[in-house]
Each structure stands twice: as C-alpha cells, then as structure tokens.
Write a structure and sequence with these properties.
about 90 residues; mainly beta; six-stranded antiparallel β-sheet; two-stranded antiparallel sheet; 1 helix; globular
Length: about 90
C-alpha cells in the first residue's frame, strides 16, 4: 500500500501514529493511522481535534471501508462503503 489514499477532500495517510487534521465538509477531523489490525487490515481512528472526542474507527476491507461511527444514539456501523460514503457519514457532503 502506498503512503496515502485519497478521495475528494479526505487523504488517509499510512504513516503510523502520525495524526493529521483534515477538513471534511464544514468539520475538522483528526485522522491517525494505527497500523494493521489482527486481520491485516489498515485501521484509522478519527477524533475531534478541538476536544478529546472519538468520532469513529475506519478499517479498510476487501470490498471497501468499514466505519464504526459514534453517534448520540450509540454506535452506527457502515460496512463495505466507499471513502466518499465515509465523507457523507461524517456530514461532509
């Protein structure tokens, strides 16, 4: 995998433990690559950079991304979606 994955406004770095703040729509989101999970899948954590608030976990699977998003009603799981759909889930588009 290369050092970056990009879709529209979102660029996912694959430099482990190096956070970057990105604008997604009208929000700023801190994205940090954690490395590969136990299944060998690249994994990122998304935070609100202004306060310690977890937005969600993003995992790249074979058919797309799995995004576990924290919401006011609990955790929402989006499975096998594109990076553009992740942006929409974050309220960016």
């Amino acid at each position: 995998m290369s050092g970056m994955q990009q879709s529209g406004d979102v660029t996912l770095s694959t430099r482990a433990m190096v956070p970057s703040v990105q604008r997604v729509g009208n929000r700023e989101i801190e994205v940090t690559f954690l490395g590969n999970n136990s299944k060998g899948q690249p994994t990122w954590v998304l935070w609100n950079p202004l306060e310690p608030y977890l937005i969600g976990m993003l995992v790249q699977g074979k058919l797309g991304f799995n995004f576990e998003q924290r919401t006011g009603q609990g955790v929402m799981l989006h499975e096998n979606i594109s990076l553009q759909r992740v942006q929409r889930a974050l309220g960016g588009y």
